[in-house]
Design goal:
The protein is of the alpha/beta class. It has a single domain, classed as TIM Barrel (Alpha-Beta Barrel). Helix content is 40%, strand content 17%. It contains twelve helices and 14 strands. The strands form four sheets. An eight-stranded parallel beta barrel has the order 3-4-5-6-7-10-11-14. Strands 1-2 form a two-stranded antiparallel sheet.
Length: 309
């Protein structure tokens, strides 16, 4: 009997897993960090997905990725996204709210796709004069609002996170917050990120730690993972070229670099993650791409992590 493409990909993925992924709670002989398949945050290849969605997913699988995290839906219905992922042999455990303001849409897609997490990557305070609703999103105004947050604003944002966490819980999902660098701008009395952690319900709001953004803001992912081991559930893995001072602005940041070609040492980060509740980790490369194409870059990133024990 002729084997379908989907059956072929699924069987092939299962064979790879048997050779080295986490199976039945037992870590097998695999070099991948945490003993889990390497994931890709699809923001990394947004342009390519916009041109050829299914073809790009197939290329991602071909490089070796087995997990992806959604960032936008490319005008496709939830069932269409699910079918494309299945056809490519990819699994999606996490969906980003994209653009900010699209929480209801993200919850719907996550439920159909079979994801567990719905993640917000940035939330402006409710008083900010910026439209964050899908179809009316102004990126420049949004970035300006985030760069001008006060410590009081983070208390307001925490309240929004708790409400989103409750909505996600009612839908059978888990809400999470993803940091950038701006949350670490110092204020008299502390930093926004710490206030956000203090003011959110630990059960309703889990955390996706973007290690690269945290490092360029002058903070240590290992210290945060060890301090809050039960709250961190997902990691973003990216690198930047070295800087001489911390960066707190989204629009003024160091140049990104493929993993292993920047300055962030991920071995201690993964060592700490092994002792925490982290379930998934995703490569995310910040454009623009200068030395390599997007697809060449994600291949370099995959190979770097795949060789890490």
């Amino acid at each position: 009997m002729k084997q379908s493409r989907r059956e072929f990909l699924i069987q092939g993925s299962t064979a790879v897993a048997a050779a080295g992924f986490l199976i039945g709670g037992v870590r097998t002989a695999c070099a991948n960090p945490l003993g889990r398949p390497i994931g890709l945050q699809l923001y990394t290849v947004m342009e390519q997905l916009g041109k050829d969605f299914d073809g790009t997913l197939t290329q991602i699988f071909g490089i070796g990725y087995r997990e992806v995290e959604m960032a936008g839906f490319f005008g496709k219905k939830p069932a269409e996204i699910k079918q494309s992922l299945d056809n490519a042999g990819l699994h999606c455990a996490s969906v980003h709210i994209f653009p900010p303001g699209g929480a209801e849409e993200a919850l719907e897609y996550a439920a159909v796709i079979g994801a567990k997490y719905v993640i917000s990557s940035a939330i402006p305070p409710e008083h900010a004069s910026v439209n964050v609703h899908p179809g009316k999103f102004n990126a420049n105004a949004f970035v300006a609002a985030l760069n001008s947050l006060t410590l009081d604003d983070y208390r307001s944002i925490a309240e929004q996170c708790n409400r989103l966490g409750e909505k996600a819980k009612q839908a059978g999902l888990q809400f999470g917050y993803h940091n950038h660098n701006f949350e670490f701008r110092p204020f008299t009395g502390g930093i926004g990120y710490d206030e956000l952690l203090r003011s959110t319900d630990p059960e309703l709001v889990k955390l996706e730690l973007d290690c690269g953004w945290m490092v360029i803001a002058g903070h240590d992912p290992v210290a945060y993972i060890r301090k809050f081991p039960g709250r961190y559930r997902l990691l973003h893995i990216k690198d930047f070229k070295p800087t001489t001072k911390p960066s707190f602005d989204l629009d003024r940041r160091p140049e990104s670099a493929p993993l292993g070609r920047g300055h962030i040492d991920y071995k201690p980060i993964f060592a700490a993650a092994k002792q925490s509740s982290v379930e998934w980790y995703y490569v995310e490369q910040e454009p623009p791409y200068k030395e390599l194409s997007a697809m060449e870059t994600i291949k370099v990133n995959y190979e770097y992590l795949h060789a890490m024990d």
